[in-house]
Amino acid sequence: MKTVAEAQSIILEHVQRLGVESVPIIQVLGRVLAEDVISNRNHPPYDVSAMDGYAIRSADVKGATKDTPVVLKVVDDIRAGARPKCAVGACEASMIMTGAPVPGGTDAVIRVEDTGRRSHKGRHAREEHPGEVEIWAEVAAGSNIRLMGENIKLGDTVLGQGSEIRPAGVGMLSMVKKAEVRVYRRPTVAILATGDELEALDEPLDPEKIPNSNSYSTMAQVQALGIEPVLLGIARDTPEHLKEKLLQGLRYDVLIVTGGVSVGHHDFVRPTLKELGITMHFWRVAMRPGHPMAFGTGSDTRVFALPGNPVAGMVCTEQFVVPALRRMMGFTKLYRPTVEATVAADVKDKAGRMNFMRARMSPVEGSYSVESVGAQGSGILMSMIHADALMIVPAGRDGLSKGEKVRVQLLDGGRFQAEPGLEV
Ligand code: AMP
Ligand code: MG
């Protein structure tokens, strides 16, 4: 029997990053880059104004206040996308819009709120230049100017090979005109349920049967990684039917089978996989839930045989399948985050295997408190409905005491909270 850590490392020894494909920008979110992306431009392309206001020489407006304004002659009106028509001399200013190029001769922009427009017809008239502007404040040299290339410079590596493409990365790809980019391929994944007792979702409800939920919870866990798996339905507990279904599944990069992997008389998954040429590396892991859990490899496929119990299957998927799929997609961070939390109430447990207890986290004074969601049977899928985390009771412990620190694995990727929580 393998420990969880041993099983994880055996799996990862047999799992490599997949090949590379080109993907259009509208589909790259969440993918891992297989190339360095190099900037083909400077951005901004020249020094531009960061404000609507006037481009000036800072020396001209030293000491300016509302009561003792400095008056400058307006020589130009520079819009975003236009070029300056002239440079600015001493005691002159050019009206300028945010994003417009800063004219020669100036070293700062003063925002429009700190100015008052004068025309030859009278103060503050709303008319185009030429005219005069009162400056009501001083500005330091360089103020309100975005320097050429301060975002990206021609030739910069803006996104590196191996990095995950996040929303800002998608924007950056468009900035450097990468409408298509090379990323690591996502694995193809097939999911097969096994069991004579199972009722398919599209069959009429029979109260005596067990609904096939594993295919769907596993499907959703795989979809959460951005992979669309193929559902192969249900294989019945006969070697013949199982063989036929497994053969279909072995055409995928990854086959996930649930149930039939234990030591019962009708658990044919392991022997049938062997018969089909799959090398089995282990079939039991010292954990709860999820004890019978097998991993095998063929030349082009990786097979995870998960326990049939709905919670056990989900917990095993998180510990073993998720890291493997992420490695195939090119990620280097493979595991769900774990944090330390304080146990909110005593929990009793049988001493033995490492136990992944379904639990809920709550923030308490800058840290976390964690509590079991209650009944922990490995068939009680409702426990996963109520849980947002797995509380890890170390092997050999017969429970946890209130106030004790424990490792907790966060489920579901991103965490969100009820309040904005931006103010202290
Ligand atoms: P097994 O691992 O095949 O012995 O199954 C263990 C338990 O999980 C049994 O109670 C099964 O009925 C249940 N089970 C197996 N497969 C599924 C499935 N696809 N969906 C829901 N429950 C299942
Ligand atoms: Mg079964």
Rounded radius of gyration (Å): 32 Å
**What proportion strand?**
25-35%
Helix content: 10-25%
Widest β-sheet, arrangement of strands: 7-4-6-5-10-8-9
The whole-number mean of residue pLDDT values reads 94
- Point out poorly predicted stretches: none
Could you say which small molecules are bound to this protein?
A: adenosine monophosphate, magnesium ion
Number of strands: 29
SS class = alpha+beta
In this structure, how is the largest beta sheet organized?
7 strands, mixed
**SS summary, helix count:** 7
Shape: elongated
Q: Span from first to last CA? A: 49 Å
Task: Give structural notes.
The chain is an alpha+beta fold and 424 residues long. It is 17% helix and 31% strand. It contains 7 helices and 29 strands. It has helices at residues 4-13, 167-175, 214-223, 239-249, 269-275, 310-328, 381-386; strands at residues 20-24, 37-38, 48-49, 53-56, 70-78, 92-96, 108-111, 115-119, 122-123, 131-135, 145-146, 157-159, 180-184, 189-194, 198-199, 210-211, 230-235, 254-258, 279-284, 287-288, 292-297, 302-306, 338-343, 347-348, 354-364, 367-372, 389-393, 399-400, 405-410. It has a 7-stranded mixed β-sheet with strand order 7-4-6-5-10-8-9, with no helix packed on it. The protein has a 6-stranded mixed β-sheet with strand order 17-14-18-22-21-19, with helices on both faces. Strands 23-26-25-27-29 form a 5-stranded mixed β-barrel. A hairpin with a 2-residue loop joins strand 25 (354-364) and strand 26. The longest helix is centred in the C-terminal third of the chain and has 19 residues, at 310-328. It is elongated, with a radius of gyration of 32 Å. The two termini are 49 Å apart. The model has no long low-confidence stretch (mean pLDDT 94). Magnesium ion (MG) is lined by residues 194-195, 259-260, 308. Magnesium ion binds at residues 194-195, 259-260, 308.
